Amino acid sequence: MSNSDKVAWDTQELPQGDAKAKVVQNMFDAIAPRYDMVNRIMTFRLDTRWRKIAVRKLALAKGARVLDLASGTGDLCVDLRKAGLIPLSFDMSFGMLAADHSKAPRVQADILRLPIATQSVDGVTCGFALRNLVDLNVFFHEIARVTKSGGRIALLDVSTPTNPLIRWGNSVYFGKVVPRIGGLLSNRAAYNYLPKSVAYLPSPEQLVTMLQNAGFEHVRHEQLSGGLTQLMHATKK
Questions:
Q1: Mean pLDDT of 48-58
Q2: Which is nearest to 196 in space by CA: 14, 17, 56, 1?
Q3: Contact 104, 89 (CB under 8 A)
Q4: Number of helical H runs and strand E runs in the chain
Q5: b/e map of 152-173 (b: 16 or more CB within 10 Å)?
Q6: CA end-to-end span of the chain, whole Å?
Q7: Which helix (H) or strand (E) holds 221?
Q8: Span 8-36, mean pLDDT?
Q9: CA dist 141 → 6, 110, 111, 174, 211 (Å)
Q10: Bridge partners of 155?
């Protein structure tokens, strides 16, 4: 990892384009060994609940084939398999794939350009990675391309609570406490960057419109745990 990448995590300005892709890949390679432990601690294990809800909202029959994109260490793949589904794991970070514990088939790939045939899978999941992608429009069109008609998607990411009190508490915790936890247990620079990366996300209304324009219907946007997390699920037209 270069010094310039480390500096990019600590800058006030968020990286864009190819620079963002490089920073994100290097960052997740660096934090992979302790990623699961830090997640459990900083979310008080709520992350496990959010993933289970996402799999339930996917509402696919047993035996359906599901791509888990930006799969990280494979937590969603584990939940997908428990639900009787067949997960396939895709991530750009080799470090994350190396730390995968799901035993699902793994592929290192750019999820904006999936090496998957058109209309070849029954569903797609993505957990807490939308804000790390260079182009969400491209991503939404790509998952629409690979998903069969009638297939389902479920996408999780962090959110900004609408309740003022919860929003204030979340901003203090996510902006001040989480970087300290990350610094003690993993990488302070990376966990300084991650709270700031929420700024990459469009509004819920924009996200719904983008999914509709990409070819999805029955798009639903839900706030989980008072708006700490958002979940979008939809059906491919």
A1: 98
A2: 14
A3: yes
A4: 11, 7
A5: bbbbbbbbbbeeeeebeebeee
A6: 42
A7: strand 216-224
A8: 85
A9: 32, 14, 11, 31, 8
A10: 126, 232
pLDDT at 12 over 80: no
**DSSP string across 120-142:** -EEEEEEES-GGG-S-HHHHHHH
Hey, what domains does the chain have and what are their CATH numbers? 3-236 (3.40.50.150)
| pLDDT tens digits, one per residue of 178-217 | 999 999 999 988 998 888 899 999 999 999 999 999 999 9
Contact 172, 145 (CB under 8 A): no
Q: What band does 11 get if pLDDT is binned at 50, 70 and 90?
A: very low
How far, in Å, CA of 11 to CA of 132, rounded?
16
- Kindly state the DSSP code that residue 186 receives in the 8-state scheme: S
Is residue 157 within 8 A of residue 229, CB to CB? The reply is yes
3-state secondary structure string across 51-112 = HHHHHHHHCCCCCCEEEEECCCCCHHHHHHHHCCCEEEEEECCHHHHHCCCCCCCEEECCCC
Mean pLDDT, range 59-75, rounded to an integer: 98
Half-sphere exposure of 227 (CA within 13 A, CB side): 15
- The whole-number pLDDT of residue 6 equals 45
Best CA proximity match to 125, nearest among 183, 58, 78, 195 = 58
pTM: 0.92
